[in-house]
Amino acid sequence: MSVRSKNLNSVFYAHSYHPIQAGSIDGTDVLPHDNAIFRAQLCSSIGFYDPFGDPKATGDPYCTLFVGRLSHLTSEDTLRKVMSKYGRVKSLRLVRDIVTGASRGYAFVEYEMEREMRRAYMDAHHLMVDDSEIIVDYNRQQLMPGWIPRRLGGGLSGKKESGQLRFGGREKPFRAPLKQIPYEDLKKLGIPPPPEGRYMSRFQVPSPPRRERNLSDKEEDSHRRGSNDRNRTEDTLRTSVDIEERHYKRSSSHRDDRSRHHHDRSSSNREHRHRSSTETDRHSRKRKERDEHSPRREKYSHRSPHKD
C-alpha cells in the first residue's frame, strides 16, 4: 500500500479521543476487541463521564502536567523536589487510594507559567525517580476532546500483560496503517480517520495543545500593544523634545557667551580708547603748561653784513 510504504517508519498522534480508535495499533479498527473498550464506548456515547466534573481537578489545565508510573514509595515532597527543577510548582496532587491512602502511582503537577510546564514536558519524560522510570504527559483529562479515563476502559498506553493496550498517545503512538483504511465505516461510526500527510518521526516529540485566545484576549493584547506603541511614541517625542531643548539651551548659552564676550571686548575697547584719549589730553596739557612757564626765546634774524 502506498501509505504504508511511505510512512512505514513514521507514527502519528491523536488530537481527540475515541475508544475504538485508541484500542487499535494503527487507528483503523471499527469494532471493540475487549470489554474495556466496550465500556469506554458506552460511557462516551451516553455522556456518563464528565472531564470537568472532578472537584479535585483544580488549576490551569494548560499549566498542569500528568506524571505517571511513579513508585509507590514516592512522596509529595520527593516529587515536588524533582519537578521543581523545571519551574515553580504552584500545586501538586499525588493521587492516593481513598481507603488505604496508598499512592496509586500518578500525580498532577501545576506550574506557575505555561512555559515551565512545557519545559518539564520536554525534559522530565522517562526520568528515574526512586528507581522508577516515570512518564510525563499534558493534562488530557481537560484538554483532549472525548477523553475517557482508564478506570472506565479508556486511557492511553498500558502494559502488554494487562491486555488493555491503548494507542495514539505520547508513549504508544499510532503506527502507519497496516491495511486499507475503511473510510466509510469510520464515518458511519463517528471515528476520525487516521491522518494522512501529518506523520512524524519517532524521534520527534508531539507538542501539547496551546491555549486558544478568545476575542477579548486579542483585544486586550491589541490594546496593550497600542498603549505600548503610544508610550513608545510619547517617549520618542519626549526624547526628541528634550534633545531640541538641550540643543536650544546650548545654542542660547553659546550665543550668550558670544554676546558677553563681544560686550566685554567692546567695553574693553571703549575703556582703552577712553584711557588713550585721557592720556593724550594730559600729555598735551602738560606740554602746554611747560611751554608757558619756560623763558621766551628771542628770534634772531640773520642778516648779512654790509658796508656803510
Tell me what you see in this structure.
It contains 8 helices and 8 strands. By secondary structure, the protein is of the alpha+beta class. A 4-stranded antiparallel sheet has the order 3-4-2-7, with helices on one face. Strand 5 and strand 6 form a beta hairpin. The longest helix is centred in the last third of the chain and has 79 residues. The radius of gyration is 48 Å and the shape is elongated. The protein starts with a helix and ends in a 15-residue tail after the last helix. The C terminus is likely disordered. InterPro entries: Nucleotide-bd_a/b_plait_sf (IPR012677), RBD_domain_sf (IPR035979), RRM_dom (IPR000504), U1_U11-U12_snRNP_70-35kDa (IPR051183). It is found in: Nucleus.
For the biggest β-sheet, the strand order reads 3-4-2-7
Question: Residue-averaged pLDDT, rounded?
Answer: 79
**How would a crystallographer describe the biggest sheet?**
4 strands, antiparallel
Query: Which ranges are low-confidence, i.e. pLDDT below 50, for 5 or more consecutive residues?
Result: 296-308
Proportion in helices? 40-55%
Counting DSSP H or I runs of 4 or more residues, the number of helices is: 8
Given helix and strand content, the structural type is alpha+beta
> What portion of residues belong to β-strands?
5-15%
Cα distance spanning the termini? 171 Å
Give Rg in angstroms.
48 Å
Overall geometry: elongated
Order of helices and strands: HEHHEHEEHEEEHEHH
In total, how many beta strands? 8
